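Example record

One chain of 355 residues, shown exactly as stored in the release files.
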Amino acid sequence: MNESAYIKDISPIVHHLYRFLAFVHHEDHLLNNSAADAISFTDTNGFLGMEEGYKSSIAEKARAELHIKEWKESWIGTGKIASKVSNAISKANNLVNKNQQINLKNRLNPAHASFRPDAERVLFEIYRGSDEKAAFEMAVKTFGAKYDTIAFLFFLKDSERFLPISSGNFDKSFRLLGINFTTSFNCSWSNYCDFISIIRDIQALMDDLLPLKAPARLIDAHSFVWILHEDRFINWKPSKEDSQDIERSVEVSVQRVISGEAKRVAHTVHTYTRNIEVVKAAKARANGICQLCGKPAPFSDSKGVPYLEVHHVVWLSRGGKDSTDNVVALCPNCHTKMHVVDDIQDVNKLLQAIK
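Predicted structure tokens for this chain:
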């Protein structure tokens, strides 16, 4: 699978990652009256483990129904493969739309009008064949463009490489993240690979930026993106202190990523050109002088460049844009002040500085 070419601006993703972190801490606090700094997708005593841990469990239970290693090509046409897959799809829970579960079972059932004689051949190619692209395309022709179903079948094949999908909901989350990509009415191998590539890039950002008890799995990144579309997350209002922490973390982390300090995302740095140019423009305009206090940068970095931090005057969470007409360069003290005090007079002063 190729790297994603759809992430052009990481700021909305980083913002939502830190808002997600604050949201999880809030939910953990409600459950436990305390919240650890690091979060876990597998701890069943925590919010994420309780809400999202079931996906891996479903995959294990459904995969156990398949007994893939026992399959023989001679089974095609006997009903053995169909029986095992029917049992597996019954374990899918909410990872496959109920109507799609019924549809697949009907196409595997010789007694039903929707039965497809070639269905077992398709399933054999998915799990025992070597051409995954061809198998996916065969599945679309045989089962219809049932994205939930086909993605789930591949998820059972290898949950470290493949993911379940719910098209409309993920499209909504992608819009929130500023990612111009849709899965609805696009059930194809290339669309599925691009979907997974996007989630894998988000996985890398999670590993680099979030305090996790264990490295993020692909399914963890999937869970993060899934939660974004839910009303409880969209409607949650962070406290003033949380909002300040979120924005401060976003400013620092975006600069870490585009400067190459963030480790795992280096392979996708070519997609973040816009952020790099915005930062360069802000620092060039400041010319080593803090645009709030008017003093020279307190020190220089290892390359001898005056150290200033780029700040979004109108916060991203308040609708501010990651563009040259909304950023300034500040000394670390003034940058902290902007996030802690949030004084409207300072905001107006900075807005004047970039006119």
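Notes: Residues 1-236 form one domain.
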